Amino acid sequence: MTTAHTDLPSSPYFRLEQLGDHAWLAIATPGSGALGNAGIVDLGGATLIFDTMMTLSAARDLRAAAEALTRRAPRYVVNSHFHLDHTTGNEVFDTATIISSTQTAPLIAERSGETLREMQANGAEIIASERAGLATITDPALRLEAEQQVSDFAAMIAEVKGMRLRLPDITFEPRMAIQGAERQARLMTWGGGHTPSDVVMCLPDERVLFAGDLIFSRMHPSIFAGDAPEWLRILGEMGKLDIDIVAPGHGAVATRAAIAEQREYLETVMALAREAAEAGKTADEVAATPIPERYRDWGFASGFARTMSVLLAYHQRAGEGA
Ligand SMILES: [Zn+2]
To answer: How large is the average pLDDT for residues 99-118?
Structure first.
């Protein structure tokens, strides 16, 4: 599926994987502060970056890798959605045009801005309380993941004081094509599933889809800022795209089978939450639901309990409205 290259630039913040002749995915190293994956695309005459990672250190290495691979500074940066692990690195791409969906631009300014200010004001306290929480985790796998998450946020807090959010210069909805001298990138949004607005990017020549956080590859997805039924509808649209390779927002490079796998996951957890709501279970009982067998080896395992709680509340609201 992917070509093995031994001469790809290396970084402590990510591992580069080649997706096609002109496209790469920088897969975030757990605990390094990068947190989200990012794409590098050579359009011919112009270089495009898809998402910018969470810390400026990681984003600087991402820019350096793009310059080494394509022999020029990035001209375009696409933000798939507003979350900090996909947008804070924008600041490093000071000569590029930043592009997002029309709905995402104010979400970066307001919601990401608010989170950043909270981290700038109370970063040391947030990290101290998260570190204290580690002692209560007995499961070794969950403990390692929690330690990596604290390490990610500690890396962010170490740089957060002088950070300023660089906002999008251009917005679009629902589609936009970016034409290079040799090939095209197609941006599209069907609304919001993971967040109120999510963008994916298709490279038709390379048959590659950069899915942002609409695809978590073999990792429990984060749904608390999103809308699970809408996410399912959007995955249905993504399934119609003529692509072979899926570059996810988190986790390893996958094939198009990852789209159906993400649908099955969401359908499974929504059904579990609906059954729990109908059985009148409490939030604590629902949070203690065991992870279904086939998802036990997926990453971000601590996200499952939170997902169940969010979906239970959704079904309880739907039940009250009915
Ligand atoms: Zn996200």
So the answer is: 97
Tokens of 39: 């794409």
Helix (H) or strand (E) holding 284: helix 283-287
In the reported structure, the alpha carbon of residue 181 is separated from the centroid of ligand 1 by a whole-number distance in angstroms of: 31
pLDDT in tens, 26-36: 999 999 999 99
Q: 300 C-alpha to center of ligand 1: Å?
A: 13
Beta bridge partners of 40: 24, 49
How close is the Cα of 213 to the center of ligand 1, in Å? Answer: 5
Residue 314: strand, helix, or coil: helix
Res 322 pLDDT > 70: no
CA 280–ligand 1 middle distance (angstroms) = 31
| C-alpha 161 – ligand 1 centre gap (Å) | 22
At residue 23, φ and ψ (nearest 5 deg) are -145, 140
Q: Cα(256) to centroid of ligand 1, in Å? A: 20
What percentage of residues in the chain have a pLDDT greater than 90? 84
182 CA to centre of ligand 1 in angstroms: 31
More confident residue, 244 or 282: 244
pLDDT category, 5, cuts 50, 70, 90?
low
* Three-class DSSP labels, 13-64: CEEEEEEECCEEEEEECCCCCCCCCEEEEECCCCEEEECCCCCHHHHHHHHH
- Residue 270 parent element (H or E): helix 257-278
Distance 29 CA to ligand 1 centre (A): 16
Centre of ligand 1 to C-alpha 86, Å, is: 7
Whether 233 contacts 196, CB under 8 Å: no
pLDDT over 80 at 3, yes or no: no
Token pair for 50 = 């898809």
